[in-house]
Predict the structure of Claudin.
Amino acid sequence: MASMAVQLLGFFLGLLGLVGTVVSTLLPHWRSTAYVGSNIITATAYMKGLWMECVWHSTGIYQCELYRSLLALPRDLQAARALMVLSCITSVLASVVSAMGMKCTRFARGSLIKSPLAMSGGICFLCAGLLCLVTVSWTTNDVIMEFYDPFLPSGMKYEIGLAVYLGYASACLSLSGGLVLCWSSRGATSQSPPHTQRNQPSSPPPCFYNIYTPAPLYKPPEALKDNHAPSLCSLSSSGYRLNNYV
């Protein structure tokens, strides 16, 4: 029962990491305008994401425009796209595999593949969390390097957006869920009793050996005198045979 509860905890942590990863991938708040130096105009805010670039006006108008060309994008943005999409796909695969491997589901109940399936789901959650963590760390490093670049104008500097922080939280949730699933599956595998081979013949109980007494050994009849078998018509007197004296 404890192992089942631990598996459910790991699964829900990984599921929350999946939702956070998908939301952070779709949000355009990866980079937001930095108000430094002479750039003190707060009537307009610019935000950049993986898929679109948005402008927010103080009047409440929110306008977004999708990137029209994939090849025209910077290489770091293309790599961030690919890594986040791969992280989302891996998280979905991890959710499906771990759901099939948990003890509370009916799939392959009583089979030996239950624990390996749950462990595989945990490993997929770990991979998804690492992919998301690498992407948001890479973006954070780029934003910080550009922010402290003295040759870059103040109007072109950006700060870390909300989607990056959400990506960090999602990566931590996915990693935690994967670790919990792997730990619970490893404990369930070590506690399972060893299985005996079905084809091995079983010896009868020791009490069966004393029921029947062993049969006597066969002894061939001894040959008679002169190798002649006694005939039924031979003369006899008082129990003595004649050919014994002839």
